[in-house]
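Design review, sub-item: ligand-bound model
Attendees: FS, YL, KQ
YL presented the inputs for the DGJ complex:
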Amino acid sequence: MAILWNEQDKTLTLHTKHTSYQMKVDKLGILLHTYYGSSIQGDTSYAIVCQDRGFSGNPYDAENDRTYSMDVLPQEYPCHGSGDYRTTALSVTDHNNVSGCDLRYVGHTIQSGKYSLPNLPAVYAEEKNAQTLIVTLRDAWLNLQVELYYGVLEDTDTITRAAVIKNCGEQTVTLNSAYSSSVDFLNGKYDLLHFHGRHGAERTKERTHIDHGMFSIGSRRGTSSHQHNPFVILSRSETVEQFGECWGFSLLYSGSFSCVAEQDQMNQTRLLLGVQPERFNYTLCPQESFVAPEVAMIYSEQGFETLSHRYHELIRSHVCRGSYQFSRRPILINNWEATYFDFDGEKLIKIAKQASELGVEMMVLDDGWFGSRNSDNSGLGDWWVNEEKMQGSMKEVSEKINALGMKFGLWIEPEMVNEDSDLYRAHPDWAFTIPGKKPVRSRNQLVLDFSRKEVVDHILDSICKVLDNANVAYIKMDMNRSINDVCTAAQGMPSEGKILYQYVLGVYSFMERLLQRYPDLLLEGCSGGGGRFDAGMLYYCPQIWCSDNTDAIARLHIQYGTSFGYPISAVGSHVSTVPNHQTGRVVDFNTRGIVAMPGSFGYELDLNLISAEEKEQVKQQVENYKKYWHLLHNGRYYRLTDCEQDSEKAVWMFAAKDGSEALVQVVTCNTNCNSPIEYFRCRGLQPDAVYCEQESGKEYYGSTLMNVGLPVRTISGEYKAYQLHFVRK
Ligand code: DGJ
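KQ shared the predicted structure:
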């Protein structure tokens, strides 16, 4: 049994293969958080030592016990107004604008299987492989009910959390904040690993020591954002790649979010993750509920490497869905960097033809095929095919591509509208704008109010008309601005937070309905590259365009950071031209191919314009991808160097789970005269097995490769790459 209730101790303990998580109903009915870490047994609440802490108040029913204070007790779902002056999970205001909440345990249920959440993504599992705990708490004064949901997937060492907050009273209440998870750590020194960035430089790993006070990251942009990612790791200060304790928190939500790490006066640390509380003010009428999206928590007792392996497995097997979840994705060519908006039907077919001759399997037609979309100033919202530019219908174009033996894919950006479009002229009120005020433009476009069903219905219908009339195997779903001017006259002006939350639900419903209608469609997420790269999106899209920056060397950092919380199969990565369009850097074709390979793999250039020698390399890369994809997607991924620390080389590898083979990929970075030799040490091999490196025929013991390692080849010139394929004898 993964979930145990001990009636005598009043403890609820959640067990996974290597992990335990415990809470306890105390003498006042407060749900304490007592433990999260390596497997334990028994009641761990003895570790909580209560003392009179000056200026830390006591609940009335603690009577004269001055040692009992919410201000220092570790809790499952701490509330503002209870006497806890730290950042709390829940803050509520009643209809008189009086704030404060006091949640007490009412009961709990334990069910087999994993719960799901209405209209939100959630981890799923077969009924026999998961259990659900629902703990009900209640504030008697507000008549507010909070259901805390816990999902336990023993095999993948995952514990999920979500909360449903229901107004059971007769007056409106307002949620000022409602985090999905809050975890208190009684003692220890912690760091927060978070993944910050910007457009073209997403998910750069940064490690911040948590001192007294609060450290917070998040997004106010309406999307999860390029700037911060809703996946974080809290670790002990000594934790490194293969050693030490760490706790991962991944929010399955694609909108504005907040993560707070706080060390309190008693050196305890609290970690909260959930929907952004700023301007949230989510009103609940009587009987209305708010669902705080899911957080998937994973603990590792063996450093970041094991934590990443567990997340890779979880997301690949229990978050991603659909017919491409485990199968090889078609190797694609995308025309964006080859043509931008400057194309017609003939040019596209020419690009596709050359690519198909080199073995590429799918042609993706990016932005510019619809309405008056000849630049990024017009046309968004008008999802009808520009047949003049395409020199035929979409059916004809797709048939020509199919005749080359290729699948056909299309780009869309459903959430957006240009003022210069038929849609905006017909429905100016469908875009977020404040009446009488000029909106903030970004890329000269406005955001459609996807919190409104009629807007989603219209866009979905018009896109389906295109898809119904052509053979489209793949959709790249883009989103190219942050949201502003959040106002929607049609809804009687709910708060910004409420609209933005319902907007995200609208985006999810759009994708869900699209996938229900076209179950074999491969959906790739995108938001100006990786601006919405989160576990929520991965419930709908098994892959996401990782960054608009296609420079192989910049990608080393972006893909390295991404790998901490997301599987390699989720990473959209392409070979593009040089000088690179984003950085101007020139990197040779081989290196570009090796860096693009750990992902969904494809090309983003006109292959007619490369040399005969490079064309041969394309053929080889295509063959290599087909040969190695099972290792790249199903093998265990190991970071052999730290991209943010090691300026000499970037090395990573994939090892088959049964130890039968491995692929090591190496990129040399700096070039110097008379440099010391650099080494790397393999991981994930069987120590006693002999492995043959396929190109040289050299043989090594697994133990040798893992302990002695291999010297990095000395290759003249910057940014050279090679790979080594080891097969067990
Ligand atoms: C941003 C995407 O990330 C690019 O790949 C491309 O699709 C453009 N948008 C098209 O406008």
